[in-house]
Specification:
This protein is α/β, with parallel strands linked by helices. It is built from 24 helices and 25 strands. The chain is globular and about 75 Å long.
Length: 678
């Protein structure tokens, strides 16, 4: 693995800069800090919460630690450029992010319906960010100060760095770098690139000349010397034999992927093949007469660097400008602790690997315990740590047995189709951390709410026992996602037998601990590779298990994921892609997608009519009836009465919700009173 400069080893830009209580959001706050200007201004689609779970706070505090004056413009009115001038002109650049989520995922459901709330906004109020926020914010920044560089970052920019399929417009969109007219894009966990790029700009290096920093994307006219260009094709053999440092792989162009879905799948396969920081090469993709160049991914952070980032002087609460406003995302995570980054699961529908990488980056136990101690002393702490985890709960301390093998590996997952023999699966480090966390003064309970990789947990039953005895609050969320081999193989998820083994071990451990605890399984409907018969198989499995799931999701094709490439192209990019290669069936029509979701909720009377029709079409009328082997009841008077009852209950709940929505929010002021907030 290449070696990177230590994150906190750079000379400070301003030696005398002291940490701000909060990064300023107004000129008044800047004046109080003694600032006449900001060096860097971050524009974000989220409310500003100064906590390490929120990207803009991590970015701001990391830059502050480098000696930069950093201001925040949170959820600005985008109807004009004026709100983007509130802090004045930044000395170095605007940093633009849509927020912790892609703005389109944040605003719309998998059925493309507008969501009624936004967890990252005060009072969960919707419509406080625009569609494609990173593009809109960048345009307004450019209008405000046209000569100030724009640095794009965050998950929206990261997952849209090349041409990508956009489900909301049903078309291929260009790299967001070009649509936003940004100067440079930082992808993935970008602290290394962020710090290096910031110091280079501060030294007077024109942003258009910054071409060597890993984890960055930028526009170029052609391939510079001394790089050798290799054109990616399905028959491409051994590109890794060429020197990595001077090799760039040309993936299918924007025009090619628009014209040919197979080319899109090939571009996706190339991108994911070049994702290991130990062996990745630069990529280039043409967009007309311009090219988007992607440098290799950033070098993973060391434990010392992770500790340094998470122990910066966060206020650990929302900015005072929000008063007593309720911000759901903050309420959910304020007593949670991030212990790791990255995920080597490689689930095709998930964006974690594309954004954070497959190599686990973890904090030291000592750093984590110090944060728990700080949380335990905060006003209002109830004694419960709501989560000790990260993208995945139980990858802390797990890694490849050989750094050399890890650096050379090009597999998309360490656990599919089976757990790699080179993967160390001993959970001792994590178990020890849990025990230390439980012993912190003032802590009554430490819960684990992040997702459990049960295929890893069954490799170390001690972990399951520890979890069941001490870290479950009655229910444990777990994600088998499906039971049929077809969709599971396209998800890169283990077979249902592994889930059954985990469920058995968890039940035994819970009984031994004298606790009545249950698993809450999560499933995905309409994933690429799913047939109607697969959903029927899942529904029958749920009925046999006596499970009635309420929290279900329909597959949402998010930018750059492998499953989205399957959805758009009808091909399987987990293997070599050609016109003749494996076809992947994908439920796309609204009727079929809703039917697949209905199978998951076979017990809901509102789904019975659709399921009866589907079962009849499938020749499975034997499953219509009221016996224990039947899936749905017949269309009789009793069924219609049950449906009427359910609809009346929903109508009553809707009326109550509308009634409560008209009442002023707790902590809000009477319309006739004078507000102190601007």
């Amino acid at each position: 693995m290449p070696i990177a400069p230590e994150l906190f080893s750079y000379p400070k830009y301003r030696d005398d800069l002291k940490p701000a209580p909060f990064l300023p959001m107004s000129r008044a706050e800047m004046k109080k800090l003694g600032w006449d200007s900001c060096d860097i201004i971050i524009v974000t689609g989220d409310a500003y919460i100064d906590h390490p779970s929120f990207g803009m706070s991590v970015v701001g505090r990391v830059l502050e630690a480098q000696g930069f004056r950093v201001g925040i413009i949170a959820q600005p009115d985008w109807s004009s450029a004026e709100p983007f001038k509130i802090l004045g002109k930044p000395n170095l650049y605007f940093g633009v992010t849509a927020g912790n989520m892609d703005s389109m995922v944040n605003k719309y459901t998998s059925d493309r319906r507008k969501r009624s709330n936004d967890a990252y906004t005060p009072h969960a109020e919707p419509d406080k960010r625009p569609d494609r926020a990173a593009i809109v914010y960048s345009q307004r920044c450019r209008e405000a100060y046209k000569d100030v560089p724009i640095v794009l970052g965050g998950i929206e920019a990261s997952l849209r760095r090349i041409a990508q399929f956009d489900i909301w417009s049903e078309k291929i969109r260009r790299s967001i770098l070009l649509d936003a007219r940004g100067d440079i894009l930082l992808f993935g966990n970008a602290e290394r690139a962020l710090v290096e790029v910031s110091h280079l700009i501060a030294q007077g290096v024109p942003v258009e000349e910054i071409k060597h920093v890993r984890g960055t994307a930028f526009a170029v006219k052609g391939v510079p010397e001394p790089f050798k260009e290799l054109v990616y094709t399905a028959k491409m053999t051994s590109p890794w034999k060429e020197p990595r440092e001077t090799t760039v792989i040309r993936i299918p162009s924007y025009e090619e992927v628009v014209e040919n879905p197979v080319a899109y799948a090939q571009a996706s396969r190339a991108l994911h093949s070049e994702s290991n920081p130990g062996n990745a090469r630069a990529l280039i993709q043409a967009h007309g007469n311009r090219n988007v160049w992607l440098n290799p991914p950033p070098i993973p952070l060391t434990m010392r660097e992770m500790d340094g980032i998470y122990e910066l002087p966060y206020a650990r609460e929302p900015h005072p400008v929000y008063g007593n406003a309720k911000i759901p995302a903050w309420d959910m995570i304020k007593n949670s602790i991030i212990i790791e980054r990255g995920c080597f699961g490689g689930c095709t529908f998930c964006s974690i690997t594309e954004h954070e990488g497959r190599i686990i980056q973890r904090r030291s136990k000592e750093s984590i315990i110090r944060e728990i101690e700080a949380v335990s002393q905060a006003p209002g702490f109830t004694g419960v740590i709501s989560d000790l985890g990260g993208p995945t709960a139980n990858m802390y301390g797990l890694q490849c047995k050989s750094r050399e093998i890890e650096a050379a590996c090009r597999k998309p997952s360490c656990v599919f189709p089976d757990v790699c023999p080179n993967l160390q699966t001993d959970h001792s480090e994590l178990i020890d951390l849990y025990r230390k966390a439980r012993n912190v003064d003032g802590v009554k309970k430490v819960l684990v709410a992040s997702g459990i990789r049960y295929d890893l947990a069954v490799k170390d039953p001690r972990y399951i026992r520890e979890l069941a005895e001490h870290h479950v609050g009655g229910y444990l969320k777990i994600a088998p996602e499906h039971v049929a081999d077809g969709p599971l193989s396209k998800m890169m998820k283990p077979g249902i037998g592994t889930y059954d083994k985990f469920a058995e071990l968890f039940a035994q451990a819970s009984e031994a601990a004298g606790k009545e605890q249950y698993l809450i399984p999560y499933f995905i409907a309409a994933h690429p590779g799913t047939e109607d018969s697969d959903m029927l198989e899942l529904a029958l499995w749920l009925k046999r298990q006596n499970m009635r799931v309420d929290q279900v999701q329909t597959f949402l094709p998010t930018p750059m994921s492998t499953a989205t490439a399957m959805y758009y192209s009808g091909k399987n990019p987990l293997r070599k892609v050609t016109e003749e290669s494996e076809e992947v069936n994908t439920p796309k029509g609204l009727r079929q997608r809703r039917l697949h979701k209905a199978f998951l909720r076979y017990h809901d009377p509102e789904n019975w009519a659709a399921l009866r029709d589907a079962l009849t079409e499938m020749g499975r009328q034997d499953l219509i009836g009221r016996g224990p082997r039947h899936l749905v009841p017949p269309d009789d008077r009793r069924a219609r009465e049950e449906l009427d009852k359910v609809r009346a209950q929903k109508e009553s709940r809707t009326k109550k919700k509308k009634s409560s929505a008209t009442k002023p929010a707790k902590g809000s002021q009477n319309k006739n009173s004078r507000s102190k907030r601007k």
